[in-house]
Write a structure and sequence with these properties.
The complex is a heterodimer. By secondary structure, chain A is α/β, with parallel strands linked by helices. Chain A has helices at about 5-10, 25-35, 55, 115, 120-125, 155-165, 215-225, 275-280, 295-310, 310-320, 365-385, 395-400, 460-479, and strands at about 1-5, 20, 40-45, 60-65, 90, 135, 140-145, 150, 170, 175-180, 185-195, 195-200, 205-210, 240-245, 245-255, 270-275, 285-290, 330-335, 345-350, 355-365, 390-395, 410, 415-420, 440-445. In chain A, α2 packs parallel to α13 and α9 packs antiparallel against α10. The longest helix of chain A has 20 residues, at about 365-385. The radius of gyration of chain A is 23 Å and the shape is elongated. Chain B has helices at about 1-5, 10-25, 35-40, and strands at about 50, 55-60. The longest helix of chain B has 15 residues, at about 10-25. In chain B, a hairpin with a 2-residue loop joins β1 (about 50) and β2 (about 55-60). Helix content of chain B is about 40%, strand content about 15%. Classes of the chains: A alpha/beta, B alpha+beta. Chain A: It holds the Pfam family GMC_oxred_C. Chain A: Belongs to the GMC oxidoreductase family.
């Protein structure tokens, strides 16, 4: 069932045991799992079926530190959440991403990759994926990484019919919780906001917060402040260890054979370090995206020239009435070192229309990451030489040690951490089952539980974790 | 200058310009004092990895 307002939902007299906040990949997946298990669930979606400026405005905020996107454009607030602007790249975090790295503090998960692998067949169907493929080692240091592409499933569109027909799932649009109330052991209720006004209190046996990698922290910080610590009793790490995938143009490459690596439909191939290389160099995980621009004949020569003398090549290309680019561009994205100082705070001065403080995001890249960027490109360049595959040029701003450019990709719009998983209550917010430490009925879904970010796009891991949490809750709630 | 450019064939322009970037590789050769083997180019390891103007190269690429 799908309702356009909380009023309409109330009139239907649907009694939910579980309340899920948010209808993105995590919220929708958990709801479908619970619904299939015969458990009545209500999903509160803050937006409607379509994008609207009014809804997005609730996401405005500020960033302190490194340059970052406006917070109201880096995520989407309507049915399906940020799956609505997802590009579709799929890969699960690497095995080593779950392991602690001795050279990077606060890394390591309380679960292993094997804990989510049983859910990959489900993820495969949900995201409509081709078969997962193993990576291909090209040297002792570098792997040719096999990212696969989903048709970029929009969860709101794909599952609207199924959710509408479900007798166990009620989706309530234009409705969300401005705060949760709790007594330090249980969430006792939620204050709702629907269609532009306060909609009163709501209660359910269980609450699952799936509002995204920024909003999860915001809601819990505000709820905790309002209930004097009654919602997240161990709040030291709440909002902290926030991570992104910084992404920048890292240079160019001239390849000996442009058919060496199979590329996807947009001429891209991906490379990452082996665990041995990361250990030896004491760097984080990274991904190099090689974008080929294959040209025939003389155009190919000019494209190679564009790698070495871009101004000259541009002039020459214009003389020939062409628009030729360097034959292979390199983009680099990397795993951020988890830092407690990268955190989501509540603004002390700015609130949204419902009176909830907006986000103040503190985000800064570390020296370890800068070293990862430089050493990663060197590693790739050395591998191409050793294997006689080509040559790499590191971009001037990196080679010269200049600041990060502000007119570049900047990051992947991947919001991770803030309510990270762990066993140490001073450094994590949820346990290995995504339950908030010390609370009996409060869980968190989505990438905010990530302890580390790896180098790959998070949606596949988010969906696998949501399947796992859905199974866990089905057993817990059924008791 | 423009006279010559106007009268050169496309092929000549291409050939001349393709040769140009090689010059930039020699603008900033690695410091000869950094490694004793550099003092005598004949003893330098041709497989040594060097960075020149951002390029990651084999020393033999510079020959």
């Amino acid at each position: 069932m799908i309702f356009d307002s909380y009023e309409a939902f109330r009139a239907a007299n649907f009694t939910a045991k579980v309340c899920i906040l948010g209808s993105g990949p995590a919220g929708t997946t958990i709801a479908r799992k619970l619904g299939a298990a015969g458990i009545p669930v209500v999903v509160l979606e803050a937006g409607s079926r379509e994008f609207s400026d009014e809804s997005q405005d609730f996401y405005r905020g500020t960033t302190v530190g490194d340059f970052y996107f406006d917070l109201d454009i880096t995520r989407l607030r309507f049915m399906g959440g940020s799956s609505n602007h997802w590009a579709g790249w799929c890969r699960v975090l690497d095995k080593q991403d779950f392991e602690p790295k001795a050279w990077a503090p606060d890394t390591g998960w309380p679960i292993r990759r094997t804990d989510i692998e049983p859910y990959l067949p489900e993820v495969h169907d949900i995201l409509e994926l081709p078969d997962f493929r193993p990576d291909v080692p090209i040297s002792d240091d570098i792997r040719w990484v096999q990212l696969i592409k989903s048709p970029a499933v929009r969860f709101g569109e794909k599952f609207a019919d199924e959710l509408d027909k479900s007798r166990n799932i009620a989706v309530v649009l234009n409705t969300y919780a401005t705060e949760l109330a709790g007594d330090g052991k249980r969430v006792t209720g939620a204050r709702l906001w629907s269609n532009g006004q306060d909609a009163g209190a709501f209660s359910a046996d269980y609450f699952i917060v799936c509002t995204g990698g920024l909003e999860n922290s915001r809601l819990l910080l505000w709820s905790n402040q309002r209930s004097n610590g009654g919602v997240v009793p161990n709040a030291t790490a709440l909002g902290r260890y926030w991570m992104e995938h910084p992404t920048f143009e890292g240079g160019n490459a001239i390849l000996a054979n442009y058919n060496e690596f199979e590329v996807d439909a947009v001429n891209e191939a991906f490379f990452s370090p082996t665990l041995a290389a990361m250990e030896r160099l004491q760097i984080m995980n990274f991904g190099i995206r090689l974008i080929e621009t294959p040209y025939p004949g003389v155009k190919s020569l000019i494209a190679d020239l564009a790698c070495t003398a871009p101004d000259m090549a541009e002039w020459m290309s214009a003389k020939l009435s062409q628009n030729l680019r360097c034959a292979a561009q390199l983009y680099v994205a990397w795993e951020q070192a988890p830092l407690a100082s990268n955190q989501i705070e509540l603004s002390k001065t700015d609130v949204d229309h419902a009176g909830v403080p907006r986000i103040e995001l503190h985000w800064k890249k570390s020296e370890l990451e800068r070293r990862t960027l430089v050493e990663g490109l060197r590693l790739f360049g050395t591998t191409l030489i050793e294997k006689n595959l080509g040559r790499v040029r590191i971009a001037d701003w990196i080679a010269n040690g200049d600041d990060y450019p502000t007119k570049d990709e900047t990051a992947g719009h991947h919001h991770m951490g803030g309510t990270r998983m762990g066993t140490d209550v001073t450094k994590s917010v949820v346990d290995a089952n995504c339950k908030v430490h010390g609370m009996d009925n409060l869980y968190v879904g989505g990438s905010s539980v990530f302890c580390t970010s790896g180098e790959c796009n998070p949606t596949t891991t988010i969906t696998a974790l949501a399947c796992r949490l859905g199974d866990h809750l089905s057993k817990v709630v059924a008791v | 200058m423009s006279f010559f450019i106007k009268n050169m064939s496309r092929r000549t322009i291409v050939q001349a310009l393709i040769a140009l970037p090689a010059l930039s590789l020699f603008r900033k050769l690695p410091d000869a004092d950094a490694n004793a083997s550099h003092a005598d180019p004949s003893r330098a390891d041709p497989h040594e990895i060097v960075e020149v103007n951002g390029w990651i190269l084999k020393r033999s690429d510079l020959a």
